[in-house]
């Protein structure tokens, strides 16, 4: 395939104002993922769009298989859909403000 570039799991994006921190999650336009490394504002940085992560969680308890949403204002994941963006599925029950999530690559 002459036009194949990569599997698309990591997309290079410009780091936002203030820079990017390795392990932080971000929504950039219709992309959502986790920064692979740290970078200064404007530098290219990898954004991993899939995978399993242990992340901060807010809101009511959820169980395995629940849809999880990105609450941009709190930079945390939640089970509440209202005003939030669907980004993954819980692969553990929520406990002590943490949860394990599998990101589901999609157009957000």
UniProtKB/TrEMBL annotation:
InterPro entries to which the protein is assigned, alphabetical: Phage_VT1-Sakai_H0018
Identification of the protein by name: Predicted phage recombinase, RecA/RadA family
Protein source organism: Cohaesibacter marisflavi
